[in-house]
Amino acid sequence: MSVFPVFRKKNSGEIARNRLKLLLVADKADCSPEVMQMIKDDMIRVVSRYMDIDSDRIEIQMKKLKQPDCEGYSPVLYANIPIRDVPDKGIY
Amino acid sequence: MCEIIVITSGKGGVGKTTTSANVGTGLAILGKKVVLIDTDIGLRNLDVVMGLENRIVYNLVDVVEGNCRMKQALIKDKRYPNLFLLPSAQTRDKTAVTPGQMVKLVDDLRDEFDFIILDCPAGIEQGFQNAIAGADRAIVVTTPEVSAIRDADRIIGLLEAADMGGIELIVNRIRADMVKRGDMMSLDDVMDILAVDIIGAVPDDEDIVISTNQGEPLVGMGTPAGQAYMDICRRIAGENIPIQNPAVREGLFFKLSNLLKRA
Q: Given A17, A23, A27, which is nearest B189 (Cβ)?
């Protein structure tokens, strides 16, 4: 986030604030680590049917996003799924 | 008009009992007639913080079970003529009292006092349910730490679900030096995360340890925490006193990054 790459080391107060924001969203969405793992496994299974993905590098997490249509933040499920290759199986 | 206030937090060790002692004493200094009730059955502590541990004869459970009259169990604080303590029982557990009995207990005191301050135990089990049952409003104590704020958020949710009249927040143990260098969440950070009204910000103050050692609440004394607690008491009593933020993050880097965030 920092403008100056030299000062990239985050202050622990900011780390605490960011961890807490995510934690509270996860608490409220009632997503235990076990549930998150289940979602992740299901996603890997579904997406793998269509493309070759790097399942070790998948990131999924609950985030708070500012919503343009309403005031304040709402939780979003963020998934980052690196694609290795899209095989030509004739399905497109 | 009597107001019944529960001091709660979820997490232990954030300063509920210290806050109860100082708020109760401060309101008494302001001329209000106050009774402090320790609802932590089995882990009695408020008596020690108040320095009244040698004067206990009967306790809360004795009153509830009818072993004594209310008057016999109330300890009058000799330093402040309007201040009383109803101590908890040390050899019983939380199941000795029901929420219904707590409601009746505080109702019996309502006519005689201006403020009833309930010191809540840590946790969200029966002790918490007992403490909040008879309360009109709640003060949630937290510290600028991830674990304490998470628990405070949960407690606020439970208080809202229980239709608590008013819920206000005290952020305790703020260390100005750490906030300034960015290594502690600021008052604004905590307020931003927990969307409830704030009634006080208490700086970390080693005089709190000294005052607890001596069994003498420091509210109203010249120390930073004593001053902050007195301000809280005045706000509870209805005065309009602006919140003193013990620490504002400063420095060129923060100013710059804040500017960029806003842009």
A: A17
